Amino acid sequence: MKQTFSVKTLFLQRVADHFRQLKALCKTAIDWIVWLYVILPVLVIGGYNYWKWWRDEWDLSAMMFPIETIIFAVLFLLMAAGSLRFFIERADQLFLRQYHHGYRQLKKLGVFYSATVHFIILVVVFAILAPLFLVQLEKNIAFLVALFFLCWSGSLLIPAIRQLLQFRFRGWRYYIMNTIFMGSSAAVYWGMIHLWDAAKTNQLLLMAGCLLIIFTLTWFVLVVRMHKTSVFLDELANEITLKYRFMSTMLMSAGMVGAPQFQQVKTAKSNKRPWFFRKSGTIFSKRTPEKVIIELHMKYLLRNKNRRMLMLQLTGTCLFALLILPSVLKWIVWFIAIIMFLHLNNSYVVEMKRNTFLRAYDWEREKLALYTRKSVFWTNFPCMTVIGIVAGAVLFPWWGIVAVGSATFGISYLLQPLLQK
Amino acid sequence: MYVLDVSITNAGYQDSRDAVRNIRFHVGAGELVGLIGANGAGKSTTIKAILDMLPVMDGEVRFPSSKRRYAYIPEQPSFYEELTLWEHIEFAAAVCNMNRSVWKSRASVLLNDFKMEHVIHHLPASFSKGMQQKLMIIVALLTEPDVYIVDEPFIGLDPRATKQFLHYIQKEKARGAGILMSTHVLDTAEKYCDSFALIDDGEMIVNGTLDHIRKYTELPGAALMDCFDKLLG
């Protein structure tokens, strides 16, 4: 019997494997009993606020921050975080890559998958934001729908162009080109929204015209991206990064960092020297085991883009929540932020301690625990300072900054031994 | 005088608690012991058991020296992706409480000998496998420990670096350090090792000098490779 090879079957099998892995991870890595304590109150409080967004109209002029700008910025960031997954694997270099048609078909299916995933995510996000747009900002349905399609298209266009830039430029050149591209994208996005908003007549026609241009551009760029050859290793590196982006975040938050052996793919000209402390500079002049552990932890965060960004994003999210939520919820967010950063940094410590390089030295357990406790305190310091100051400022008059700021450090310091793994 | 005394009844993982069994040998000061065996025989697991890196360990590993100073060179280079080569050296020196002028001059010689001076501020993730292995060797040699535990050191090393490494091994032996080296490269092992511990299927088959192994296998004057071949049949 002749057996036929189907790229579609292969692709579906890989997608199914991916979801199986995610499911297994959800089952094993997350302590659902603990999460229920977080998820249930969030759902109840969130549901109540969502209902209030539909019912009560806000006095936008009395708000201390530009809500409209923040929402559009969040949507842009969501669009910029979009990804293009092709589900290629290392072993494809042996066989599949030689069959250009099959390999391209795999990529096409990848685009279809990415588009579907982004569509679903955006539907959820827009359903959440709908009362803000329709009730609070008084936009019409057509505007909301057009914005949805703009974001959807952008979530494919932006990663496709960024990948093309990645193939063409390396190191600092890539960062410059990427910054220019992201800046221009933000300008176009902002300009388009402003134009739609300002249009008194023919708004529908204007929106349809803009979307037609964006869709055509997206289609064109995706075709170019799919026909790009000789970039297998970059595509593989990209794929592995995307595959584990979600998983590693989950694992980090679950404190099980380092469980899977992630395969590392080195691109042709990866950064040879770090951006921070380029000449192996030191943070502490005294070189004791304690100081080098603290320094290791700091460099561990600073020099790893994912960890650095996660800390920044979490800080940003907490600050955003502190600014927009009612007072009672501000206190909850403030307390959760303290726990969350302690938990996250303790997870990094677990990951650091698992490294064979560290384990090859003969450490006294108690001393190492003490050093890492200090390292968690210092790596938490910047985030705790910002969160403490902002929480103090939004909850009390000027003296709140000092009081809540000090309380943040105190509570963080007291809780730390309880969360240490 | 022994610098490492190994007596493992059984050790392994949760799902295979006796991955290695009945492993008993010792390493003397100034002695190089070759840990040899086929692929999957249990050499690396034995080393992990010695280093207390296994979840299941029934037995005893003694470092008679009061300071328990050892250096480990793993088969798969293990390093922090966020630290440069120089920072790894500095880290090791700080953890071992070394005098700054001592470790700096020692590091400078080692970096020069292993031709790594030009990449001291580079991240090891950008290195080739051989260069990463050199990083492991440099960091181990820097601290001048009592015992070296070396797992497959020659994989990825170029001939010049291999020669340099063997030169340092001889030097460290002369200093009085004991070395346990797991390897597949039997002709090199035969030339440099003082005694051998042969492992098969997680168990120790024979332990002793080459002459002892020849007697045991009844192959007088035979090469280590032939004895190995006969023992594993």
Could you please describe the fold and organization of this structure?
The complex is a heterodimer of chains A (421) and B (233). Chain A has helices spanning 7-29, 32-55, 67-80, 100-136, 141-168, 171-198, 203-227, 232-254, 289-302, 305-324, 327-354, 356-359, 365-395, 399-419. The model of chain A is unreliable at 255-265 (pLDDT under 50). In chain A, 76% of the residues lie in helices and 0% in strands. In chain A, α2 (32-55) crosses α4 and α11 (327-354) runs antiparallel to α13 (365-395). Chain A has two domains: 7-249, no CATH class; 289-416, no CATH class. Chain B has 233 residues and is of the alpha/beta class. Chain B has two domains: 1-69 and 145-156 and 177-233, P-loop containing nucleotide triphosphate hydrolases (Rossmann fold, 3-Layer(aba) Sandwich); 76-144, no CATH class. Chain B contains eight helices and nine strands. In chain B, a hairpin with a 2-residue loop joins β1 (2-13) and β2 (16-28). In chain B, α2 (85-95) runs parallel beside α4 (129-142), α3 (100-113) runs antiparallel to α4 (129-142) and α7 (210-217) crosses α8 (224-232). The chains are: A mainly alpha (421), B alpha/beta (233). At the A-B interface, α9 and α12 of A face β5 and α2 of B. Chain A: This is ABC transporter protein EcsB. Chain A: Keywords: Membrane, Transmembrane, Transmembrane helix. Chain A: The chain crosses the membrane at residues 29-51, 63-88, 109-135, 141-160, 172-192, 204-224, 309-325, 331-350, 371-390. Chain A: It holds the Pfam family EcsB. Chain B: Residues 1-226 form the ABC transporter domain.
What fraction strand of chain A? under 5%
Mind telling me the C-alpha Rg of chain A? 24 Å
CATH architecture of the largest domain in chain B: 3-Layer(aba) Sandwich
Low-confidence stretches of chain A: 255-265
Helix content of chain B: 25-40%
Distance between the first and last residues' Cα of chain B: 35 Å
Number of distinct beta strands of chain B? 9
From the N-terminal CA to the C-terminal CA of chain A, the straight-line distance is: 57 Å
- Please summarize the sheet with the most strands of chain B: 6 strands, mixed
Keywords (chain B): ATP-binding, Nucleotide-binding, Transport
Pfam families (chain B): ABC_tran
GO molecular function, one term (chain B): ATP hydrolysis activity
Protein name (chain B): ABC-2 type transport system ATP-binding protein
